[in-house]
TrEMBL record:
A molecular-function term among this protein's GO annotations: rRNA (uridine-C5-)-methyltransferase activity
Classification via InterPro entries: MeTrfase_TrmA_AS, MeTrfase_TrmA_CS, NA-bd_OB-fold, SAM-dependent_MTases_sf, TRAM_dom, U5_MeTrfase_fam
PANTHER family: RNA M5U METHYLTRANSFERASE, TRNA (URACIL(54)-C(5))-METHYLTRANSFERASE
Keyword Transferase: yes
Pfam families: TRAM, tRNA_U5-meth_tr
Protein encoded by which gene: rlmD
Top class in the EC scheme: transferase
Name by which UniProt lists this protein: 23S rRNA (Uracil(1939)-C(5))-methyltransferase RlmD
One of the protein's GO biological processes: rRNA base methylation
Entries under Gene3D superfamilies matching the protein: 2.40.50.1070, Nucleic acid-binding proteins, Vaccinia Virus protein VP39
């Protein structure tokens, strides 16, 4: 494709056919791909090109000739400026359809699966796709306003509420901003490393209605942050605990590794199904309680446990899946490389009185070998890796263990497709069930069932 004829700031008519994985509309100009902000499939727009590359261009809409029937007015006034949501302008049924189509497309292209359309089920969505998140990471502007980052930038968009949070945050945001001003708290400046407050993390319990606040601080605990915590606790009645998370590093990491309890209870308690979990500041806990339970119910259904099976839960984190399955399994062995998460898993097993679960710290492939030396072998394996997917050595170790079933829980269809291709050497992929764990965003969770050939 000769791109010389396309120039920055030129205008073209573009019909939007699809979406990128980050939410931009995809169209063509004489076969040349153009990515357009704030568009949905079915829009026909006049586009001004802002960036020209060899294989594609990027642009912004300047006039809508035809508005897609799939488009809706975003209910959030900050949509388009705040980077938290990508597709609030797309009707929810269309969001779910796009996510299924995306999973099918990735399985076909990257996983070379001709049966992708057949094995992929419709996405399980939410009845109300708002007010679902149990965690918010609020950023603070230089003038002390609370908000989220603008898309693809570190510019803070101030807001007075967020409609995808369990608690939209109106009262908390007002309280934070007033306290920052009154106590003269300086805001961290990432350009020079100066300033105290880097951000505020809010964790919410669906089960109790309580919240944990984590004040991310560029410095040691001092009288100022103690006064900040005391005031927030007094003004926000649902606060169960407040931590100071010390992060003095010149980095983009949200929280530090050193966390000091300033007020209240050490842990926040939440639940998935009948299992209760104690959550620490650094605990990984899925942000959508309702759909996380749907994911775990799907894992449970696929495994179809009778009480006689040994289950290996790999990349187990704080043990959420393994502990959820323990009531139906003979025994669950969880393996996780993050030591703090393993400690959380053991404490949560004790907290729930679950005695048929054991958790190990280390690489999963090494732990599988050690368990095999103890004559412990899995009937079934659950894989729940991070976005980068499974290590090839681990996949081989799992296949060598010869479980009857593997259930793969994925947050990234691309790495799922890659890993299923390797596992298909010895396993048939029976079903892929997408679940909408993150409505209004481009993310989709998938649960895949594999049976040994």
């Amino acid at each position: 494709m000769n791109t010389i004829k396309y120039k920055k700031n030129e205008e073209y008519n573009v019909a939007i056919m699809d979406l990128t994985h980050t939410g931009e509309g995809i169209g063509k100009v004489d076969g040349f791909t153009v990515f357009v902000e704030d568009c949905v499939p079915g829009d026909e727009v006049r586009v001004r090109l802002t960036t020209i590359k060899k294989q594609y261009a990027m642009g912004v809409p300047i006039q809508y000739h035809k508005v897609s029937p799939l488009r809706q007015d975003p209910p959030c006034p900050y949509f388009g400026e705040c980077g938290g949501c990508q597709i609030q302008n797309l009707q929810y049924d269309a969001q779910l359809k796009w996510k299924r189509d995306h999973v099918v497309d990735v399985l076909q292209r990257l996983g070379d699966r001709s049966d992708a359309q057949e094995i992929t089920k419709d996405v399980i969505g939410m009845e109300d796709p708002y007010f679902y998140r149990n965690k918010a990471q609020y950023k603070i502007s230089k003038n002390g306003k609370v908000g989220f980052y603008q898309k693809k930038s570190h510019h803070v968009v101030p807001l007075d509420k967020c409609i995808i949070q369990q608690d939209p945050g109106e009262d908390l945001i007002k309280s934070l901003e007033a306290a920052i001003q009154d106590l003269k708290i300086t805001i961290y400046d990432e350009t020079n490393g100066k300033g105290s407050l880097r951000g505020v993390v809010q964790r919410l319990s669906k089960a109790t209605g309580k919240m944990m606040l984590i004040l991310v601080w560029n410095g040691d605990v001092n009288d100022q942050i103690q006064a900040f915590a005391k005031r927030l606790a007094k003004e926000n009645g649902s606060v169960a605990s407040i931590y100071c998370s010390i992060n003095k590093g010149r980095n983009n990491r949200t929280m530090g590794y050193e966390n000091h309890l300033l007020y209240g209870e050490k842990k926040l308690v939440d639940e998935i199904g009948s299992v209760r979990f104690q959550i620490s500041p650094l605990s990984f806990f899925q942000v959508n309680n309702a759909m996380t339970e749907v994911i775990y119910q799907t894992v449970d259904r696929m495994l179809d446990l009778s009480g006689k099976e040994t289950v290996f839960d790999l990349y187990c984190g704080m043990g959420t899946i393994g502990l959820y399955l323990a009531h139906k399994a003979k025994f669950v062995y969880g393996i996780e490389s993050i030591e703090d998460a393993v400690r959380d898993a053991k404490e949560n097993a004790a907290f729930n009185g679950i005695e048929n679960a054991e958790f190990f710290h280390g690489k999963a492939e090494d732990a599988i070998f050690l368990l095999k030396e103890r004559k412990i072998e899995p009937d079934h394996v659950v894989l729940d890796p991070p976005r980068k997917g499974c290590d090839e050595v681990l996949i081989q170790a799992v296949m060598d263990a010869k479980p009857k079933k593997i259930v793969y829980v994925s947050c990234n269809p691309a790495t799922l497709a890659r890993d299923l291709q390797m596992l298909s050497a010895e396993y048939d992929v029976m079903e892929v069930q997408p679940v909408d764990n993150f409505p209004q965003s481009m993310h989709v969770e998938t649960v895949a069932l594999l049976a040994r050939k």
